[in-house]
Design goal:
By secondary structure, the protein is an alpha/beta fold. The chain has twelve helices and 14 strands. The chain has an eight-stranded parallel β-barrel with strand order 1-2-5-8-9-10-11-14, surrounded by five helices. A two-stranded antiparallel sheet has the order 3-4. A two-stranded antiparallel ribbon has the order 6-7. The radius of gyration is 21 Å and the shape is globular. The relative contact order is 0.16. Bound molecules: phosphoenolpyruvate (PEP) and cobalt (II) ion. Phosphoenolpyruvate binds next to loops.
């Protein structure tokens, strides 16, 4: 195959390729100055953490771990607060305990946080009342208010994104070292909201069993730090704004290769996965494990070419394919791609993102997703892997620990009319705390059906 992998790679070799989904800065020299400055600052993560995650993802690809990736669609600077970071971490931890217990396997926790600030958009501009301005592309680029000042891309925002990522990660790391004591308290596992679900009894029994295990672990540990006192969270974000990513792309002493030390797991979004494009060029040279979103327009040939370029040596844990087709399309789109990858004899980690193929708009114009469509795509994805002799090794959600009303459905039966009450997302609708926990229960339920 004649493709770019034969050419030499460098942290900036992407600059000779076509780049998509980038803002137009009024003063490009100011962007260069900011990137030069960021290059001198300490990284956010270390190469050994990145290597450890790659090993864990390799184990997940072998079926010995399960990946839970979740968090914001788009982080915002103003939501970099103790409450929001803590509650997001708690729901992720709680979901991971449900999965650990229910799937009887270790869970790899990866947040969509500490750097998820850049968004691809379907249109570069937005028009309201005859006025056209650049689209909001995430807090690292501009601001959502519909004014010329807010929407003009500002390179200084890269520095704020770095600072906010560091502040977020600092709290995540501190909480990971013992901040979860209240998870052992029964009131933390109050799942009264489930009472209206036909599955309430089943889920209550699961929660009871988890509580018993947590108590049992406490008794066994006898006051010495137990395993819950230190839990690992890794970070991930879409590697979209390449000047920012390049600033954290570093050689590490005594290590081979080049790492992105701005996050553990960067991923390529659906809109920037062109074989000859800048994003694929940038990602192919990193040592990090990487994610690749796979949507309905992906062909077999393109997917195999991407795998060849991004993971030429079939490195265990290197590539996570994050599928996002939508509940309607997954049944026809996933099987041929799955078979094509299987026929190569390669091992990749398959992860299901049941959010991005199931976005719709209400009559009132709000973006939403139905809990029922999200779980339907997940369940079908589990079934398709099982039918093909493959296995689904992970799940990917957009969620928050807050009580928002952005997705429809779930045990509490949120309707379209509820959405206005607490719709805070600036981009995609997220599962709220209860919906996210219920989703973890439903993953367990499906998994157990397949494995009993
Ligand atoms: C996202 O994960 O927020 C996203 C934009 O996904 P995709 O690239 O799959 O559309
Ligand atoms: Co999104």
């Amino acid at each position: 195959m004649a493709h770019s992998s034969v050419a030499a790679w460098a942290p900036d070799s992407w600059t000779s390729k076509t780049i998509r989904q980038q803002p137009t800065y009024p003063n490009p020299a100011a962007l260069d100055d900011v990137v030069d400055h960021l290059t001198t600052l300490p990284p956010l993560v270390t190469s050994w953490e990145v290597d450890a995650l790659r090993e864990e993802l390799a184990a997940a690809a072998r079926g010995e771990r399960f990946l839970l990736q979740g968090g914001e669609c788009a982080e915002s600077f103003q939501d970099c607060t103790a409450d929001i970071i803590t509650s997001r971490l708690k729901i992720l931890l709680q979901m991971s305990l449900v999965l650990t217990y229910g799937l009887n396997t270790k869970v790899v926790r990866v947040g969509r946080f500490a750097g998820q600030y850049a968004k691809p958009r379907s249109s570069p501009t937005e028009t309201r009342d005859g006025i056209t301005l650049p689209s909001y592309r995430g807090d690292i680029i501009n601001s959502p208010a519909f004014t010329e000042e807010a929407r003009t891309p500002d390179p200084q925002r890269l520095k704020r994104a770095y600072t906010k990522s560091g502040l977020t990660l600092n709290l995540v790391r501190a909480l990971s070292e013992g901040g979860f004591a209240d998870l052992r308290h029964p009131e933390y596992w109050n799942v009264d909201f489930m009472q209206h679900s036909p599955l309430a009894d089943e889920y209550h029994a699961l929660v009871q069993a988890i509580e018993d295990s947590l108590r049992f672990m406490d008794v066994v540990a006898d006051g010495t730090p137990g395993s819950l006192d230190r839990v690992q969270f890794y970070t991930s974000h879409e590697a979209l704004l390449l000047p920012y990513e390049t600033a954290f792309t570093r050689h590490v002493p005594h290590q081979n290769g080049v790492y992105n030390l701005g996050t553990h797991l960067p991923w390529i979004g659906k809109r920037t996965n062109h074989l000859d494009g800048a994003h694929v060029e940038y990602m192919r040279g990193l040592r990090n494990p990487i994610g690749l979103k796979v949507g309905p327009s992906m062909t077999r040939t393109k997917l195999l070419d991407l795998i060849e370029v991004l993971d030429p040596d079939d490195t265990p844990g290197r590539l996570t394919l994050i599928t996002r087709f939508g509940a309607d399309a997954v049944g026809t789109k996933l099987p041929p791609l799955l078979k094509a990858v299987q026929a190569t004899g390669r091992t990749v980690l398959w992860c299901c993102d049941p959010m991005h193929g199931n976005t719709e708009r209400t009559e009132g114009g709000l973006k939403t997703r139905r809990f029922s469509n999200i779980s339907a795509e997940l369940e079908q994805t589990f079934d398709i892997h099982a039918a093909e002799g493959s296995h689904l090794g992970g799940v990917h959600f957009e969620l928050t620990g807050e009580d928002v009303t952005e997705c429809i459905g779930g045990a509490r039966g949120l309707t379209e009319h509820d959405l206005e009450r607490a719709y805070h997302s600036r981009v995609d609708p997220r599962l709220n705390y209860e919906q996210a926990l219920e989703m973890a229960f439903s993953v367990v339920r499906k998994y157990r059906q397949l494995h009993q």
